[in-house]
Amino acid sequence: MLEVKDLHVTVEDKAILKGLNLTINAGEIHAIMGPNGAGKSTLSAVIAGKDGYEVTQGTILFEGQDVLEMEIEERARAGLLLGFQYPIEIPGVKNIYLLKAALNAQRAARGEGEIPAPEFMKLVREKSAEMKLDPSFLQRAVNEGFSGGEKKRNEILQMLVLQPKLAMLDEIDSGLDIDAMKVVASGVNSLRSADRAILLVTHYQRLLNHIEPDRVHVLVDGRIVKSGDKELALELEARGYDWVLEESAA
């Protein structure tokens, strides 16, 4: 589903990714871990098409399509979704309007008509309940006045409504208490399917207690230096990153 080859990325002329390689197959959940400043958030931002990043070398293919040749909205319509570490507030735009506009844009790209209003309302109410968000949140401006946990649950609500093929979640666990994390993890787990992939960027193994990854990758200084199964995350929790840094320097 996703193939990243020899990816080099700079931000304000500073090299961040330095030859990163990653392959994610449909049906898989991959977790990216690593020390601060390693480039974890940069990877998902570049795949999604966020401004401010310059790809100087390498390729990103999504279902065989050259992602770097696609505009941001084309990537979204193709099924890419980025859940933000710090979700932004959008004053004046109701949550429900954003969800409906995004879903209908996606349907139009597939040659489908707009979703009927009763069907849409049933969908968003069901998904809001799954994320333990009161229905009143649908009528509020996007993330405005939401707590940190509510913003994160709202990000997952968007994902549940839009059903992306590749969901990239950037530190979706930061700032969550244990109850909110369980709700968020439940939403992510409900999306697991044979035709979808999920990329988790996280600092902490605790998220992976609730969302079991197929593969764990350690990103150090712009490259993936070690990969393994969920046991690797447990080892990182116990031993820190120093041993990986020493191995990668050897």
Any chance you could write out the topology, listing elements then pairs?
Layout lengths: L1 E10 L2 E11 L4 E5 L6 H9 L5 E9 L2 E2 L5 H7 L1 E4 L6 E5 H15 L7 H14 L10 E2 L5 H15 L3 E5 L7 H13 L6 E5 L13 E6 L2 E6 L1 H10 L2 H8 L1
Parallel strand pairs: 3-10, 3-11, 6-9, 9-10
Antiparallel strand pairs: 1-2, 1-4, 4-5, 7-8, 11-12
Helix pairs in contact: 4-5, 5-6
Describe this protein's structure.
The protein has a 6-stranded mixed sheet with strand order 6-9-10-3-11-12, with helices on both faces. Strands 2-1-4-5 form a 4-stranded antiparallel sheet, covered by helices on one side. It has one domain (2-249): P-loop containing nucleotide triphosphate hydrolases (Rossmann fold, 3-Layer(aba) Sandwich), CATH 3.40.50. Strand 1 and strand 2 (14-24) form a beta hairpin. Helix 4 crosses helix 5 and helix 5 (148-162) packs parallel to helix 6 (178-190). The chain is built from 8 helices and 12 strands. With 250 residues, it is an alpha/beta fold. The longest helix has 15 residues, at 95-109. It has helices spanning 40-48, 72-78, 95-109, 117-130, 148-162, 178-190, 230-239, 242-249; strands at residues 2-11, 14-24, 29-33, 54-62, 65-66, 80-83, 90-94, 141-142, 166-170, 197-201, 215-220, 223-228. The mean pLDDT is 91. Helix content is 36%, strand content 28%. The radius of gyration is 18 Å and the shape is globular.
